[in-house]
Amino acid sequence: MTSLGTAALAVGFLTTLYAIGAAIYGAVRRERRWVDSSRLAVYGFMGLMVICFLVLEVAFLSNDFAFQTVAEHSSTTTPIFYKMTAMWSSQEGSLLLWAFVLSIGSSAVLYLTRDSQRQVAPWATAVLMVLAAFFCGLMLFSVSPFVRLDPVPVEGAGLTPLLRNPYMAMHPPMIYSGYVLFSIPFAFAIGALITRRLDTTWIRSTRRFALVAWIFLGIGLLLGARWSYEELGWGGYWGWDPVENAALMPWLLGTAFLHGIQVQERRGMLKIWNTGLITATFVFCLIGTFLVRSGVLQSIHAFGASTVGGPLLVLIGITSLGSTLLIWSRRKDLQPERRISSPLSREAIFLINNLLLVGLTAVIFWGTFFPLISEAVTGVSSSLAAPWFADYVAPLGVLLVLFTGIGPLFAWGQLSGSAALRVLAWPVALSSLTVISLAIFTDVSSSPWALFLFGFAAFTFVALAQEFARAAITRRALTGESMPVALGSAMARNRRRYGGYTAHFGIVVLLIAVTASSSFQTKEDLRLAPGQSGKVDDYTLSYEKLVVDPNNERIAFNARLAVSKDGERIGTLTPARQYYPTQDPSAGPIGRYFEGEATSEVGLRTSGTGDLWTAFQPDLAPIEEDVEAGNKALADAGPVAQGIAIVAIADAYAADPPAATFRVIWDPLVIWVWIGGIFVMGGALFAVWPTSSSRQRAEVAKAAKAAREASGSTANPGGRS
Amino acid sequence: MTYAIAAILLVCLVALVTIPLRREQEDPAAAKAAFDREELRAELAELEARKAARYREIRDAEGDRAAGKLDDADFERLDGELRREAAEVLKEIDRVRSQLGLSAKSG
């Protein structure tokens, strides 16, 4: 099986080189058959990457430890779901995932543009295949997923315990799919720049891919945040960790790009800005891959050392420099068709939103890379913590919410002052009322940024409600449909607009939840012995007992906490600490079960108003004597005897446990982070879904093409493959 | 073993990518004409997209006036500008269609 994988990888690498050559030759010589041949090579490359992907998946599922990567990242006891997802926990597996997704995305876009984009597509093919050659080359010459072990081990090391979480299992493919799919609009932008076909055709052809990339990246960010919240035991969902930031930055730039291209499509403006934005977005996707895989910055998410940091850095440098020079050389072709004539116009608001998003990215970039910058300047590496990020991100985020609300209210072109006052009246009135009410009746004013954000959020909700209401009323007047049906019809007729508004609603809900949960959180570390209680916010938590839950993968200690409010028991929380055995033999046959990697399973009570979050840290010092004795007495005993001893030690500990540390957090409104995220992604999916009219257009185009071919058109005597 | 599998895969790949190359060699003049025609078709597609965008903008402007976002004066100015641009696009479409030998009915 390793032979099949290696052979497919090697032939895949050669195929990418051929596709690059054929595409460029066909484009320069204007020979269609070479361009067609390059496209078929891309399809062939996809087939080869599917073979590689399946070979590795089958190896994981069948415990084929002849594969080094399977032996290092899986074991016979790893659950099937995690065997299927273990591939991307390794460096070589994640590179294969990159190439696999790239092959599918490239084939899809080249198939869809096979009858259009004749000048741009060959150059885009070349760009996409250069990227494919890079990742295939890394696997072929540096970190192959098909390295064979001899002799074959009987058991594997197993998956890193922190990754045994369903959110984390799906997080990497979502993030990587986002990164990879952003390469498609980037490649077509480069093709458009090379051929000077800088109208909106390349945007129309790749807009959906950009939006799908944005959706994948967004879902990946949400899954990662949820994993952090449930698994890492520090009590948050976002820690401004370098690897988290690395995925957020291209998402923010991608958001700016998706808005910027609307201005270009509608008003013929921001052409340089948009080509720059898609380049920056893709470069930041590469930087994201680099940060996860290079280990240059300390991160809780960077798993294992890497050897691909150097080549990735070279690729980032070439991509940035080459694209910048290309844009500069085409600056005359990228002049706008119009100028922004008034600040009271939708295009002006879109530009402000773009600047805020780029500003946010710049702040996050500075904070993320500050350890490297400070080391380069002072010789000492210093990190910037979460409060620094909050200080700079909060004002920009607050303004972003405000302009998210203003954008839909303004028309394209120019508004008069009186029209602007008219459309702003209700949102301003109701948001002012919200701010005054919050200031008088709550303690929100203790955090001025939170007060501003809630006020601007109210503004945006009213603005969006006005837009939906106007759409429904207009539709109803035309058709006589009921209001809900009229609203649904109006939304279905303009998916892009109303999908966008739904996503805006979700973003504002999410930012309200982020603000509330970060500004008004209550956090306590309680040290409790069984029978003792502690109070956090309005809740009393009583440590009832400790329960041992061993299985063949790990030993879990589950703490049972009774939760009461106003003297009445309202539920039970069971935070747990799970200990996975270490492979280090120096820990001893018994000790290795208690000295390996440990993970937290939080106890969570969720409601619409907030989450009661608990994590548990037992004190295992009392078992050290028993473990030491067991290590000596059972050094030569079989696994059954050792297993009995381990369970006996754990049971004895649980029968009379010492005081343990509990981190307890009351997190207001945090569930709305996830609900807001679902609205954002749902709105984007609604926008990207093909409309019935676009499906009809596609069918008409297909029928027209069939008719042309049937009539024996002489315009293309070679035909098309 | 690896080399044998690679050879089989390579043969399959070569068979696939040479399908267009095994076509009968096109007459260079016909190929150039076909290429030029494709360029014109691409130009026509872009113009049709610009036409659709202008029509959409005109409809949006009417909607914005109905919603009170545009005063009558603002609407007249914007609508006039958009209609002028749409007329120019229509002229361009007619030009390209006639070059393609298609009847000029762009509106």
What form of chain A results from the Cα inertia axes?
globular
First-residue to last-residue Cα separation of chain A = 33 Å
Low-confidence stretches of chain A: 711-721
The tally of helices of chain A reads 22
The total count of strands of chain B amounts to 0
Structural class of chain B: mainly alpha
- Could you spell the SSE succession of chain B in H and E letters? HHH
Could you characterize the architecture of this molecule?
The complex is a heterodimer of chains A (721) and B (107). With 721 residues, chain A is an alpha+beta fold. In chain A, 64% of the residues lie in helices and 10% in strands. Chain A contains 22 helices and ten strands. In chain A, the strands form two sheets. In chain A, strands 2, 3, 4, 5, 6 and 7 form a six-stranded antiparallel beta sheet that branches. In chain A, strands 1-10-9-8 form a four-stranded antiparallel beta sheet, covered by helices on one side. The N and C termini of chain B lie far apart (64 Å). Classes of the chains: A alpha+beta (721), B mainly alpha (107). The interface between A and B is large, with 56 and 50 residues.
